[in-house]
UniProtKB/TrEMBL annotation:
Region (Disordered) location: 1-22
Source taxonomy: Eukaryota, Viridiplantae, Streptophyta, Embryophyta, Tracheophyta
UniProt feature coiled coil, ranges: 22-96
Designated name of the protein: Uncharacterized protein
Biased composition, class Polar residues, residue ranges: 1-12
Keyword terms, alphabetized: Coiled coil
Naturally occurring in which organism (per UniProt): Adiantum capillus-veneris
Length: 138
């Protein structure tokens, strides 16, 4: 029950006004505290959501790094296999070339030997013919 302002003294009116203002300020402070608590809770929820998102992104980055490392390792292994195949083919080619060259050289030497024998036989035959002809004409 509110007393009539006219029946109050000036001092009482000032006190009553101060009490009313104090109650209003307390009410505003309580509302502000409630609002701040709500904002604090909301901020905490957002913070947790962001922390989860950061963790999720970190896991994603780690997964991408792992996959990249696996891919690089697979590529290195495939490159090593391909290089080994090329080396092996080069070795086989070099071996075949060396064998072919040795075979060719052997055939050349064989033909050279045959040619030399034929030459010697022809020379011997010509010498024999020459001697035979000389002895027949002498």
């Amino acid at each position: 029950m509110r007393p009539s302002l006219q029946s109050m003294t000036t001092r009482a009116r000032a006190q009553w006004s101060d009490v009313q203002r104090s109650k209003e300020l307390e009410k505003k402070i309580a509302e502000m505290e409630k609002t701040m608590e709500t904002k604090k809770i909301e901020a905490e929820v957002v913070k947790k959501a962001l922390e989860e998102k950061v963790k999720e992104l970190q896991r994603g980055i780690q997964e991408l790094q792992r996959k990249q490392e696996e891919t690089e390792k697979a590529m290195q292994e495939e490159s090593a296999r391909a290089l080994d195949e090329v080396r092996q083919k080069l070795e086989e080619t070099e071996k075949a070339r060396a064998e072919g060259l040795a075979h060719l050289q052997s055939k050349i030497e064989e033909r050279h030997g045959i040619t030399s024998r034929i030459h010697e036989e022809l020379k011997s035959t010509l010498d024999h013919l020459s001697k035979t002809l000389e002895s027949s004409y002498s």
